[in-house]
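Let's study a protein:

===
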Amino acid sequence: MYAVTFYSFKGGVGRTHAAVNIALAMATSRLRVLLVDFDLEAPGLSSLSVLAPPGARPHSGLVEFIADSWQTRQTQDPAAYIYEPKGFEQSLGVMPAGAMGSPNFPRAFRDAKTFFEGAFDKAKGMPGLALFADLKRAWASLGYDYVIVDSRTGFTDTGGVCTRLIPDMLVVIFGLGEQGLPGVRRVLEQVGQETLYGDSIDVRLVASMLPAGELEQRDERLKFVGKVLGRQPDMLLPLVDRLLLKEDPRHFVDSLSPLGAAYRALVESIRQANPWDVHYRLAQAQQKAAGTDLGPLENLVDDLSGADANQLPEETRWATLNQAASALIHAPARTIEAKVRAVRAGTSALRLALARLDRYGNPELYGATLNNLAYALQALPARSPDERAATLREAIATFREVLTVYTKDRYPVKWAGILNNLANVLQGLPGRADQRAANLKDAVAALREALTVYTKERNPVEWAMTLTNLGAALQDLATGSPDERAAALREAVAASHEALSVYTKDRYPVEWAGILNNLAGALKALPARSPDERAAALREAVAACREALTVYTKDRYPVERATTLNNLGNALEALPARFPDERAAALGEAISAFREALTVYTKDRYPVEWATTLNNLGYALQGSPARSPEERTAALHEAIGAFRDVLTVQTKDGYPLEWAMTLGNLAAALQALPATSPDERAPALREAIAAYREALTVYTKDRHPVEWAATLTNLAGVLQALPTRSPGERAAGLREAIAAYRDALTVLTEDRHPDKYARIAANLGSLLIESGDTAEGQRYLESALAFREFLPDRGSAIESWLRQRG
């Protein structure tokens, strides 16, 4: 609570008019205001029609409060002496001077006067200090944000109470005439900028009733005022002639009146000076934060964290801390360090609020604070992958607790939104393949639940957002059989198509581009039932990326553009071509897309994305057709260099799966590198063999069976092609290659992977025959020939050999 006294040494300067306008202006700004008439000998607030008590009957007020407290020797509850004018319920209270006109008022007035005669007598213990200290605390306990006191004029005991005991701010209103200025100066000297309790008082000098004309004479008088008072007025209130005839308690709303503008400026000045007007401070801090100045928000969070019940009502404190911490977490920052500091400060503040909030006393606020904490944990920067995973697990647990507060039956829309947030965290949680699959299944289930509330008709934007998230989660879900995988990706494609019926380019261009990007990823990964279906899906993916790039321009959305270029390059690379020139054009565009992405994804700013894109570029270069052997060699050397650079970021400790994949790509490029002699070819193949063997330390059969089998197959192929220096070395290579093929076939079986089985069985059969085991080699060749459609280049030769064997 913040108390402001409006004081004037002489009457007739517009003090009461200003006090009433300021009180009403605040009350209409969603603040709770108490207006107190301390002019006990000439009261008038309750006579204003806008402030009339209920039924227009006299209402007891300050005189009765003082008299009753003095008579009983106990501070009374001031709520009994306050009323709310019609139309201002819950926003404006009035404590009148007293029930003038009632039979009991004269006695009460005498008792109050008797009290004041000894109120500040040291011999009597200065009872006034205790009473008015109690009164101020009681006002605060009633939940008022501001108390506006209309004070008595001149030098009186009541005037002293209003200027030195009660206020946090003293607004001294005076005219420019000479008679009142010495009195104003004396009051300022008495106040001395602090209350009798030692608390500082903020003083505002307001010159009033200034005529519109005579500017030169007015300026001279203002200079004179400055000499007499030792300072210039803080604000000027112009004279409005018609207000001399009829008061206007709502003049502050007059947008064309200079006096209305001055009243609004005075409200702003008062609110700005009040450190506990947390709503005002929050609004101002949010404006600053929009320009990346986080200082005011950080200060507000600190103040609220350390506040006590005497400074702020507990509910106001925690509700505002919740808002301020959330704003701090979401605000943009000038540097990464500033963002990290802001998110950590906001998270700590939300934890403090939750420790003090009553879940059952205010479930709405408790749930909102939990939700903001969960979001903060999701955004909290971590110093290591383990710390990041632990933070995300806490966010998941927090979102799940939120769902026990915001239930579907009571808060269906909020419940659906929280499920959406929960799904996003589950989708981003790192872990082993089985843990990741379980988390993605939970995310998909949460999003499907949210869609039981979000419908296209009632919540079109939320419905489309949830479908977008569902598509992304389904796309990441890589578990189950090939049929289950295909079904998930088809559902992802369908979800993206539906979302695009709401997120259109003209209304939501950024979201539209993002969904197209996701759609392209799902289409690229979609298993097809025929080559034509596969080609159609990839062409749609390419078209989607190109469309997204019309929104994602490099100057406005550099990172999003780089991501989309990456996706475009991957889709083009996978696109089957109808003729060689089409293939060359697609790979050329893919390579250009990856190169452009690398102008954004630099190693120092985006090391992980840089490494991924460089890997993609290397893979595209490795497969690109060349117009000459020299061009082919140059492309492979560039690919090899790219893969080696990638490995400086994708290390085994930090990114084991990506490290193993890149080693596989490096080995394939080394294997494809042309050489003019066996001696030149052997070192490249030996490096390829070493790379595959390294990859197998990560790709193990139990954790990554398909990748393990594919790497063994590739290793066997290099061992088979390796030039050897002796028959013994050749025999050892063949034995390792045969063992690798046998192991690979324990995973790549004829029923689950017939295409891969056919090629491996054919290679294994040939190696067994070369090593002298003709009978077993023949059996493998015969089993491979059962899937002849996957052996277009070798099927005829195998058939011919088998016929010769009879």
The mean pLDDT is 88.
